[in-house]
Amino acid sequence: AKLWEIPEDAVTWEGGEIRPAGDNAGKFKPMTLADVAKVAGKTGGSIVGVGTGSTANFFIDALGAMRDRIAGAVASSEASAARLCALGIPLLDLNDVTDMPVYVDGADEVTSQLAMIKGGGGALTREKIVGAVARTFVCIADGSKLVATLGRFPLPVEVIPMARAHVARALEALGGRPVLRAGFKTDNGNVILDVHGLSITDPVALETHIDGITGVVTVGLFARRPADILLLGGPDGVAEHRRPGAGLP
Ligand code: 5RP
Predict the structure, then answer these.
(1) Which of 109, 127, 158, 207 is catalytic?
(2) Ligand 1 atom nearest to 56, measured from its CA
(3) What is the DSSP string of 188-238?
(4) Rg for the chain (alpha carbons), in Å?
(5) Is residue 127 among the annotated active site residues?
(6) Minimum CA distance residue for ligand 1 atom 7
(7) C-alpha span between 133 and 105 (Å, rounded)
(8) How far is the CA of 15 from the centre of ligand 1 (A)?
(9) How far away, in angstroms, is 51 Cα from ligand 1 center?
(10) Tens digits of residue pLDDT in 11-23
(11) What does DSSP say about strands 221-222 and 116-117: parallel, antiparallel, or unpaired?
(12) What is the sign, positive or negative, of the torsion defined by CA atoms of 55, 137, 101, 188?
């Protein structure tokens, strides 16, 4: 099991820290919980940006345990908004937020430079928008997400439906093999092309190039604005990587 996939009833909030609940002590590494608690705890009193996916869900559940201590959350998807609501966490409209100290989200792939591929769950556009507003972007991921070169995970590209074929041709010209994500519409009513076969040696340049193709809404490369902090789960606990100068608020 991935370190971050810990059932919500397995944890409790006690004395300012998230701890294993009931018989769960020993079933997972306390370090994992401590690191989630660190991120959640540092958000005290502030507005928190919340990502999407199975890893982000664990963070949402941790926030639920301290909902009285945050001002509210901005969600990066309808799914995360529903989960936040179910936990009684006040939801805020991003347009009403002028300062967001921290955004916490998972990734499909991440490099040691903290550039990421995101969008496996299809929420890449809203994730990039909320991440852009946040002062600190914290990526939480298990060790399997760390790669030397991005691209083994198919690169998601959100596209305006009428531009699908045009964008697909442009992505093929880059050497990729775009595949329409079948039966899927984003929260914004668009389609996703998952681009296979890319070896992304210059993620900043590729992000700029693909974002410039007419009809593309967002490419799931997060390199121009990478994560500031990466909390990477592994068999011995959670390793923390920071970009120079990055700190939790
Ligand atoms: C959703 C995302 C997720 O962060 C990414 O897909 C990782 O998901 P998970 O934590 O379930 O592995 O970008 O659009």
Answers:
(1) 127
(2) 10
(3) TS-EEEEEES--BS-HHHHHHHHHTSTTEEEESEE-SS--SEEEEEETTEE
(4) 18
(5) yes
(6) 107
(7) 14
(8) 30
(9) 8
(10) 555 544 455 666 6
(11) antiparallel
(12) negative
Residue 30 structure tokens: 């306390």
The interaxial angle of helices 54-64 and 30-42, nearest 10 deg, is: 70
Helix (H) or strand (E) holding 138: strand 134-142
Task: Write down the pTM of the prediction.
Answer: 0.86
* Lookup: tokens for 190: 């668009």
User: pLDDT tens-digit profile of 33-86?
Assistant: 556 656 666 666 688 999 999 889 888 888 887 788 788 999 999 999 999 999
How remote is the CA of residue 16 from the centroid of ligand 1, in Å?
Answer: 27
Q: What is the pLDDT of residues 90-119, one digit of tens each?
A: 999 999 999 888 899 999 999 988 999 999
